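[Amino acid chain]
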Amino acid sequence: MVGGAALLAAVVVIAGSCRQDASETSDAVEEVSDSIETIDPVALETLPEGFDADKVELGRKSYVVCSVCHGLDGHGTALGPSLRDTTWIDITGTAPEIAQVIRDGVANPREFPSPMPVMGGGEFGEEELDALVAYVQALSRS
């Protein structure tokens, strides 16, 4: 697991606060994404149709943006809820609902101090969004 100082440094890089070229930023994102929790293969067996290990792995790499609030391990932080359980806030946890929350963000969260920005603050295409949903669903099953 990455320590707090390393995570903060990676977030600064990701946010573009440092002046680095694209390859250095990409390397920093890759380093943090390598620390993101992998999924137990048993959890993959319960995913909805169309979600497989490859899609979950792509989602794991995209999750680096989400980890700032939901934690590298998905257990949540003071800024965002755990994604490692079956307890959802305002949704039941279906893939379309999770996608909608990511797409729209959460402007006025009931249980956390800060809003979740649109796309969680990331820039995801439909394929990445779908993969991120697969990863979040896998997290909730592991």
In short: Residues 1-25 have pLDDT under 50 and may be disordered. The two ends are 17 Å apart (CA to CA). Residues 1-35 form one domain.
